[in-house]
Amino acid sequence: MQEYPTETKLILVLKEKGQRSLQDLSHDLGISKMGVLNHIKHLESRGLVRRIQKKGRVGRPYYLFAVTEDSKENLANSNAWMLQNLVGYLRETGHSDLMEQFLRDRYEQIRIDYEKRLSHVGKDQKIQELVRMREDESYFPVLRDIGHDSFDLQEFNCPIYQISRYFGIACNLETSLFSSVLDMDVESTHRQVDGHGVCRFLIRPHVDKD
Q: What does the alpha-carbon distance between residue 187 and residue 183 come to, in Å, rounded to a whole number?
């Protein structure tokens, strides 16, 4: 896993693997169980992680740990509550079209910005540079080369979760954004707004249709 702060890595492990024991997390993170527990207590106090009591083989309980249902919202950004209210207000007052137009315009500006920042990068390095840009924007991306000039991009945080949960067009625009700036075929296979722990994109060279 990339070098994120320990508590961030702990959340990413739970989002990717689901419920984990203290021993599992100690192994995943490469730190002591006491160290994991200290981080968990802090994350519990922030409402990001919860513990689930299980019965052991001889009746002694043990705990598993998981992200909370609200963790996606809490991870989004510090203004998540205000943003959620704004999105709800636009929908309730019949102004969803304003949000959709805003998103289209905003993603066009992002496309222009991304293309400008990638213009000096060779084609083979564009996707690595894109991942670095997404890191800076707190998407927590992890990129895997799956061969044949194709890649598996997973993003474990969604800063636009509060918008995309109500306006699915945001997810579609993001997929189109990647395809445009990389000049590759991009398929969205998993979305956090659909209940997955990750947003996942398969990135492949354009298929020659001739």
A: 13
